[in-house]
Amino acid sequence: MDDLFEYSDSLNAPFQAFSGDWKFVKPHWHYFTEMVYLVSGVLYAEVDGKQFTMNPGDMIIFHPKQIHAFLDYPVKEDYSEKPLFYVIKFDDMILSNTTPGSPKLPKLLDNANNASEATNLLTARDLRFNPVKMYFEYCMWETKNKQFGYDIKVASMISLIVTEIIRIWLRHGFQFSTKTTFDQFSTKDFSVLEYIDKHSSENISIEELASKCGMCYSNFAKQFKTQFGKTCKEYIEFIRICKADTLLLYTDKTLDYISQETGFTDASHFIRTYKKIRGITPKQRRNSHL
User: Residues in domain HTH araC/xylS-type (predicted)?
Assistant: First the structure.
């Protein structure tokens, strides 16, 4: 079973900008921030289990470590046009510095990750007074042609897009936070999320994970829930369900096979967990794609 983690080389390639026309992207996550602007057609996006329908002029942002995908659902006749979208991926550290005393853009994006007012989807109505589409196109042109200073211009354009996003979130009630967060779950040599992703089909010991992070079980459990909004056990189950979705939607494998492949004890355990997380049965999920 493939890992969900997508490697990104933030040192040698701190940003990417390109266009796409495909409808299906398997569930995955990475350490970059990713923004997608839909030019035409319709896309069905899923972010950490929440589903969004994107229409032309909408934009969606995926924060680092969020599991996201595009689902190839049948589209209505009104949306028969092939999708076209623009994509920008970037390391938050390229964002331009603000004036002294002002909140820094990377910190604001980090704060927004768990704020309900900072929605992943920004609609065409939200963006109607903002030249976001033009910013995306500038970034793609600069990235393709690589003229002198292109990296400075791309970083500036991305900062402009992020600034527009934060202004919209502020209008929706998002508030700045002075709270500083530290990633206690990844080091140069070990990442809890990457480990869970790679070993999700196995019996993972949470006590062992805590030990690898140099933490006692109770502190690890508390800090994990605070940082990711799920218990470690719930996160492991969620990873397994995300991997199961790919097999459900794009293969004809049986539930018995899928349950064994993704780390569940049997099909009954898989069905119970799937319904708990998705709110529907695996069969209903598969039929929704037909």
Answer: 190-288
